[in-house]
Design a protein that fits this description.
The complex is a heterodimer of chains A (293) and B (296). Chain A is mostly helical and 293 residues long. In chain A, a hairpin with a 6-residue loop joins strand 1 and strand 2. Chain A starts with a helix and ends with a helix. The radius of gyration of chain A is 23 Å and the shape is globular. Chain A has eleven helices and two strands. Chain A has one domain: MetI-like (MetI-like fold). A two-stranded antiparallel ribbon of chain A has the order 1-2. Chain B is α/β, with parallel strands linked by helices. Chain B contains ten helices and eleven strands. In chain B, strands 1, 2, 3, 4, 6, 7, 8, 9 and 11 form a nine-stranded mixed beta sheet that branches. In chain B, strands 5-10 form a two-stranded parallel sheet. In chain B, strand 6, helix 6 and strand 7 form a beta-alpha-beta unit. The chains are: A mainly alpha (293), B alpha/beta (296). Chains A and B meet through helix 1, strand 1, helix 5, helix 8 and helix 9 of A and helix 1, strand 7 and helix 7 of B.
Chain lengths: 293, 296
């Protein structure tokens, strides 16, 4: 009697957990189906080539010009800039916190990183527009400080906590024996870090960087406030750009349902989804490769 | 690293895809209409949403039996709702289009337009920029990207940085149709692709205050000493006019527009009460407080 009740309970809990696991799969699938349904209609108005490769974005004109090449390049440029800044800095900070810093400094640094993660992006954007943008203009002698570079700096700030925390976990997870072995063989602390610990932690560090990249790529608010949002193909990091995310955020409110503009915004959502998917797939492949070795 | 840890990192990566993209979508909220003895639904121009809400607050204090709900969505949205009967008053920053008059006619409706306030759009530059006067044609060529240096319009040899509002802004559309397309709303002209699209008037004010190359536009209420207001002339022979309440009202300042309240036919009951209130001295005082220009 008692065991059968327990079995039933066990069974129910097990299925419940399975269901919640499946839920995330179902949600992702539903989101994609919805996006596809709303976005695919844009192909009635422009060909896929003209949509992805078009150089002009004038969505409310008649006829609307719906070319998102400047937006795609804008997003990629801002992301690339942020990655170049945030990844080396984040990994170095993680190593310092995990392996070098004395106990007290470590505690202070860790809480600082957490505070950094807690700053809302709109607040960072606000600081960006009042402090960073005028400074960049003056310091670099640009026509305007509202540039892809300003966006990259803001985003690097936002990606840092993710990269630092997860890399640090990965470094801490490297078995103690590895380090002890290295030191016993006569390696210095630096040699141990660069030749042993980094290899053990590499898959985790790559995952951390990829998560950081994902965060950067999908970020909207701060980017919208500091990049100038001009839909031109950027020639340098120091020119204004318009990102995919900022375009959706800025225009969704006014796009009338069923218009080419509305469908185009959903199609941008699909493009974002696919690029994000590609980033995660790459991360997964890299993780797998790391595991095999 | 243990296997479970790897799987969790991996799961995190995948779920992240969804969150990064969809965690940030903003869905507009549409407050449900309150059912009481009399309920007024007002919908339309985003430019006028604040004005409408300020009116509604003051109006409800005087008429506690009436409920007023004000929502934005754009002038076109408001007019469509008025025609389909889902709102009682439409706020609009433009006149009715021929298409809309026909749609109303098909439903046996005549829409009545009432100008309830005026809006002036101010062109601003950095205080250190010596250029203080521009003709409409010069403005047009500047924002089309044909004039690229302040030198062409009598200033120093600085590059021009164009600042515009986003496409969802009524001000963006008005500026485009009125200045770039010379009043022809369906013209082919567009803002230069290099124009920076700013998410708010605040962002424009801030960038103009910090950047001597910049030129931007915003509503009359944003004027501050941190930006220099440009005097505008209709054409080469007209006088240059500085925008203020007087020049907008007399229409001697060229970049101004009327703001409307539309009703279905002759208004009556609470609709008439609200319209009368908007035009009353008290209502017009609210117009000034929300940075527009009164009509009376």
């Amino acid at each position: 009697m008692r065991t059968s009740f327990r079995r039933a309970k066990e069974f129910a809990i097990e299925k419940l957990i399975l269901l919640s696991g499946l839920a995330s799969v179902v949600f992702v699938a539903l989101i994609f189906v919805f996006l596809l349904r709303e976005g695919i209609s844009v192909l009635k108005h422009v060909s896929p080539g003209a949509f992805l490769g078009g150089r002009f974005w004038y969505p409310i004109s008649s006829p609307a010009k719906l070319g998102i090449l400047p937006l795609i390049l804008g997003s990629l440029l801002v992301t690339a800039g942020a990655v170049v800044i945030a990844v080396p800095l984040g990994i170095a900070a993680a190593f310092y916190i995990a392996e070098v810093a004395p106990k007290k400094t470590r505690a202070v640094l860790k809480s600082c990183v957490e505070v950094l993660a807690a700053i809302p992006s709109v607040v960072l954007g606000f600081l960006g527009i009042t402090l960073l943008v005028p400074f960049l203009k003056q310091f670099l002698g640009l026509p305007t400080g509202l540039t892809a570079f300003a966006g990259s700096l803001m985003l690097a700030f936002m990606a840092l906590p993710t990269i630092i925390s997860i890399s640090e976990d990965a470094i801490n997870a490297v078995p103690r024996e590895y380090k002890e072995g290295a030191i016993a063989l006569g390696a210095t602390h630096w040699q141990t870090l660069v030749r042993v610990v980094i290899h053990g932690a590499l898959p985790g560090i790559i995952a951390a960087s990829m998560l950081g990249i994902g965060r950067v790529f999908g970020e909207t608010m701060a980017v919208m406030m500091v990049t100038g949002n001009a839909a031109v193909i950027p020639e340098t990091l120091f020119a204004p750009v318009r990102t995919l995310t900022a375009t959706i955020a800025a225009e969704m409110g006014e796009a009338a349902q069923g218009t080419p503009h509305y469908h185009a915004l959903f199609a941008i959502g699909i493009v974002l989804f696919l690029i994000s998917f590609a980033i995660n797939l790459t991360a997964d492949l890299l993780l797998n490769r790391g595991r095999k070795r | 690293m243990t296997n479970t840890k790897r799987t969790s990192v991996r799961a995190l990566l995948w779920t992240a895809a969804g969150f990064f993209l969809f965690g940030k979508t903003v869905s507009p909220s549409h407050p449900a209409p309150l059912q009481r003895s009399a309920a007024l639904q007002i919908k339309g121009s985003d430019t006028m949403v604040n004005l409408g809400q300020a009116w509604a607050e003051a109006f409800v204090k005087k008429h506690p039996e009436t409920n007023v709900a004000v929502t934005g969505g754009g002038s076109g949205t408001g007019i469509a709702a008025l025609i389909s009967g889902t709102c009682d008053l439409a706020e609009s920053s433009r006149a009715l289009e021929e298409k809309e008059i026909q749609q109303a006619k098909a439903k046996g409706l005549v829409i009545r337009q009432e100008v309830v306030a005026l809006d002036g759009i101010v062109v601003v530059v950095h205080p250190s920029n010596p250029v203080g006067r521009l003709t409409m044609e010069e403005l047009r060529e500047i924002f089309l990207g044909e004039i690229k240096s302040w030198k062409t319009v009598g200033g120093p040899n600085w590059p021009i940085v164009l600042l515009s509002r986003e496409v969802n802004s009524g001000t963006h559309i008005f500026f485009k149709e009125h200045v770039l397309r010379r009043g022809k709303s369906k013209g082919p002209e567009e803002f230069a692709p290099a124009a920076l699209m700013m998410p708010s008037s605040y962002a424009i004010a801030e960038e103009v205050a910090h950047n001597e190359n910049a030129v931007g536009y915003y509503g009359l209420g944003y004027i501050s000493p941190r930006q220099k207001v440009v005097a505008v002339a209709r054409d080469g022979t007209s006088p240059f006019t500085v925008p203020d309440i007087e020049t907008v009202r007399t229409n001697s300042y060229p970049i101004s527009r009327p703001l409307y309240l539309f009703t279905r036919g002759e208004p009556s009951g609470p609709v008439k009460a609200f319209l009368d209130f908007a035009l009353s001295p008290e209502g017009q005082k609210i117009v000034v407080e929300t940075d527009f220009v009164p009509v009376r």
